[in-house]
Amino acid sequence: MAPPRFVADEMVGRLARYLRFVGCDTIYARGWPDDEILRVARDDQRILLTRDRALARRSEHALLLTSVGIADQWKAVRAALPSVPDEIAFVRCTECNGEIVPYVPGAHDPRHEGVPWERVANGLPLYRCRACGHLYWEGSHTAHLRTQLARWTAESSP
């Protein structure tokens, strides 16, 4: 089963990034008017994530989040939608929501800037967003996120 798809308003931008970390297709509607957010949620059959009570009331499929903190927001989403993955998946760009694919840089690749060549030399996997070119790899930040998500998920389980 595919993970749920979301549209997140600008009040929950950090949550949108975390949902992308776990592979959820999550549009971040920063600066969008409410009517556009509602249209995208409806037309694309996405769940609206918001802290705006009035906006949530206008949507048939909204999850109203009451907390400002990312940990509590994550727990609320997982409680309402247990099918949301809780493992890091290199499939969605945290910057633009584009598709992430394995990447093997070549010596003449014009997009080699920013490539951690020690990772390439050691055969560690790299990933790049097809849409914006953002580069990803396993690192200490990934381990930290995994620990954080595991803790939050455990705390939200009955």
Give an overview of the whole structure.
The protein is of the alpha/beta class. It has 2 domains: 6-90 and 150-156, no CATH class; 100-138, no CATH class. The chain is 36% helix and 16% strand. It has 6 helices and 7 strands; from the N terminus they run βαβαβαβαβαββα. It has helices at 13-21, 34-43, 53-57, 70-80, 117-121, 140-156, and strands spanning 6-9, 26-29, 47-50, 62-64, 100-103, 126-129, 135-137. The protein has a 4-stranded parallel beta sheet with strand order 2-1-3-4, with helices on both faces. The longest helix has 17 residues, at 140-156. The mean pLDDT is 89.
Secondary structure blueprint with pairings:
Elements: E1 6-9, H1 13-21, E2 26-29, H2 34-43, E3 47-50, H3 53-57, E4 62-64, H4 70-80, E5 100-103, H5 117-121, E6 126-129, E7 135-137, H6 140-156
Parallel strand pairs: 1-2, 1-3, 3-4
Antiparallel strand pairs: 5-6, 6-7
Helix pairs in contact: 4-6
Instruction: Briefly note the structural class of the backbone.
Output: alpha/beta
Summed up, the helix count is: 6
Question: How many domains make up the coordinates?
Answer: 2
**Radius of gyration, whole Å:** 17 Å
Share of helical residues: 25-40%
Overall 3D shape: globular
Please tell me the overall pLDDT.
89
Number of strands: 7
Could you provide a short overview of the structure?
By secondary structure, the protein is of the alpha/beta class. It folds into 2 domains: 6-90 and 150-156, no CATH class; 100-138, no CATH class.
